[in-house]
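Question:
Now give any protein.
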Amino acid sequence: MMAVVGDTINIVKHLKSGDPAPEINPSKYTLFAYRFCPFCDRVRLTLNHHKIEHDLVLIALADKPDWFKQMSPSGKVPMLLNEGAKLIESDLIMRFVDELRGTDAQLLGVCGMDKFNEALALTSKYYKPAHTILFKESYNSEDETTFRSACGELDKQIKGKYFAGDQLSLADFALFPVLDRLEVIMNQLTKHTAPDHVTE
């Protein structure tokens, strides 16, 4: 288990089958995640922005520990655990965390629910072809066309400094992690080799 404060992360390894379950502090939030998952990054950004102290447990998705399968039958990450209560789905966790510091600190209030949902919909269009281009041995012209179309739609929607205007909002945290992979994806499309640290 790794303590996380702000953007400082001490990553040891992804826990896999055969690894013992970590000791869980019931009085602290625990985030189960995968290092290269943009949906997990969404939640981490929200936790870090609101300075919510939490523990991070990384899970090897291709070889999940049995104790994690028992804890989460769906096997999904991110999963946020606190005092035995479990929350899955990145958008739901983001909204939950966004409420922890009170109404005045909420980022959802900046963009509103409609813009937040719009950002989620755009990332869904963007993510599938992006994932195929990054991690599959081969991709076709349809994948590239779909990806470029999603990029074009996203570009049209961003009209200010941030997605919803001139202020940072929860919609931006929904978008940032997928956009962060853009340079690597474009390298793939132009036949360059992806960096060694980018692995599924």
User: Anything to note?
Assistant: Confidence is low (pLDDT under 50) at residues 1-11, 192-200. The chain is about 45% helix and 10% strand. The chain has two domains: 29-103, 107-190.
